[in-house]
Specification:
2 copies of one chain form a homodimer. Chain A is of the alpha+beta class. Chain A contains 8 helices and 10 strands. Chain A has a 4-stranded antiparallel β-sheet. The mean pLDDT of chain A is 93. The structure holds a DNA duplex.
Amino acid sequence: MESRCENCIIRQLNALKALDKNELKRISDTKISKNIKKGDFLFEEGEKLNGVFCVRNGVSKLSKMSDNGKDQIIKIATKGEVLGQRSVISEESTNLSAIALNDMEVCFIPKTELAESVNTNPNFTKELLLQMATDLKIADNIIVNMAQKNVRQRISELLLYLEDTFNIDDEGFIGMVFTREDIAGIVGTAKEACIRALSKLNKESLITIKGKRIKLDNKTKLQAIVDGLAN
Amino acid sequence: MESRCENCIIRQLNALKALDKNELKRISDTKISKNIKKGDFLFEEGEKLNGVFCVRNGVSKLSKMSDNGKDQIIKIATKGEVLGQRSVISEESTNLSAIALNDMEVCFIPKTELAESVNTNPNFTKELLLQMATDLKIADNIIVNMAQKNVRQRISELLLYLEDTFNIDDEGFIGMVFTREDIAGIVGTAKEACIRALSKLNKESLITIKGKRIKLDNKTKLQAIVDGLAN
DNA sequence: CGCTCAATTGAGCAACTTCAAAATTAGTGG
DNA sequence: CCACTAATTTTGAAGTTGCTCAATTGAGCG
């Protein structure tokens, strides 16, 4: 399933869109397509990355192990996202682990090629800058939510986000299934608390749970919960 | 107390160090020095910033109001830090408020001048990128701490950070005084919980409290608490 | 001295965590 | 396709932590 970056629409979703034809050729010649199986690491916290991973397909969780042994999911990365960008830019070992949540197709792009473009193409660098600025803003929001919202609010917010990100299947359920443990890891709580919050929302008819799948039945109310206007 | 950027050592602490002589002259000609009094806003959440603020002296808190009306302090900014950078880069209104915690001297640099340098000086852009990458990593850590550490651990960590950042006075106390409410705002808790955690640390002889000032008496033990190896 | 704001303490309550056990689901090999 | 094992989900219950409201103390200031 090898293909050329020049023809890859995915790059429109990230900073690579600022590259010109020649740069794309260069990168396409050096990139390596990889298939990652569900559950496998793309990379692990502390690893020194020699490049970044551009997600063509599949979903990955970016997580960080805390001292107490539980890991906190910082971000869910989907098609078009570039992983490892931050640590490659600052030339440090990565502060996060990336694990595939389903089978993935990714392109590995060596950092030498990126560095080349950073040095010669100001538009690319600016695009990277914009990307980082956005990530930073998102991180600020997460910090506030973690500090000031309760589990019920954070889960409601996550559900709205997930439906938005993964769309819905033919039955109206969120088009991607997460284990309760992963949901708990995103929300930053114990999985039991997560399960209880979900089944409470279920009982209140705000969501429907069918196996592991979740459907949102009342987004308005869920949003109100997030905003602290309802409980 | 007007002075020229060319002679200002502060810029070594941030991305402005990548500017060349001509750029520094240009910026020096357009910058505006301001004195901000304790308690005053540098800018307020939602405001459209026309430039950034380079801190020459004093301390500022960057905070974000959450829906429940409490504000969460995202960062404490000191000498050398540039505020408003993120929102100027992404040309959005700012997502944070900046309030002076003591009297401050800052230089306002118009965004047109920054944009000029971003467009013409790749080194400057790269410096900005590095800065953002660092900020992002810090934010990731904060998220994990918020999600997985308790108030006692977060406060211990903050104290170690504060002593490191503000040094100590002649009596060994941290060289900057924060209200308990601000500490609570940083740590993301109610001020009562913050007070109780502090006075517990005090009773245990890990810290000494004298009025509002705090001295660390056993950093090893405090670090152990942060790391979850002691309680 | 009286006023105001910050700090402290107390007490009750709600939210979360943790450990343990039961129920359900998924996966594997025959 | 079934049976069996492993893993995940769910529920229960006890114990902590942290939140909130209210009252008290203390410090700074005109």
